[in-house]
Design brief:
With 190 residues, the chain is an alpha/beta fold. Helices cover 41% and strands 20% of the residues. It has 7 helices and 9 strands. The strands form 2 sheets. The chain has a 5-stranded parallel beta sheet, sandwiched between helices. A 4-stranded mixed beta sheet has the order 4-3-6-5. The longest helix is centred in the C-terminal third of the chain and has 15 residues. It starts with 11 loop residues before the first strand and ends with a helix. Bound molecules: adenosine-5'-diphosphate and guanosine-5'-monophosphate (5GP). The site of adenosine-5'-diphosphate has 13 residues, from helix 1 and helix 5.
Amino acid sequence: MDGNRSNRSGRLTVITGPSGVGKGTLVQRLLERHPNVWLSVSATTRAPREGELDGVSYYFHGRERFSALVESGGLLEWAEFAGNCYGTPREPVELQLQSGRPVLLEIELEGARQVRRSFPDGFQIFLAPPTYQELERRIRGRGTDSEQAIQRRLERARQELKSQDEFDAVVINDCLDDSLRELERLMSLS
Ligand code: ADP
Ligand code: 5GP
């Protein structure tokens, strides 16, 4: 990690971090301020949460459709997370990169590792919570997951938090406005 590095060389940015750390919240704030940034819409086998729309939040697929995508090479990366599959559709990412737009992927750790291999020039950011206790408070406070899902996500979080050194930059999501400014700086948007 080097706090002074930023993303001048590549247009592909990956943001990873444990469930509940605030990735979705931060990314939405970034997109409001920078509509030119293109956020990849992932495919998932997870059931939609209240308010989530197919094709906007995710492409919601059954297991068979998801497996067909994997087998046809249609996903840039994919991983299992807390009992569901998630993956990045390949073609739209390639098209957006060709068009020169900054492309953002918000994905979990295993996917980030796969993207690191296929896009070594991409810039990878880890969003970390101020403390583990605060992470748990946020996951519970969000109120979208069952107790079993929360336990699986917290267990996974313990593993993910150990991977921070693999990343080009670590942003601690304490004050959301500070994190937004830091993300803008890292993506050379400000
Ligand atoms: P993720 O996408 O990483 O799973 P969310 O964006 O859904 O996380 O955020 C989880 C919860 O934490 C939400 O209730 C959100 O409002 C809250 N949250 C996000 N960022 C912050 C922050 N900097 N300080 C306090 N709460 C936050
Ligand atoms: P959620 O179910 O909370 O929306 O997402 C669970 C986890 O899956 C989050 O860490 C999120 O970043 C990750 N995720 C979302 N889309 C993808 C994807 O396309 N690929 C991978 N590998 N992870 C994803």
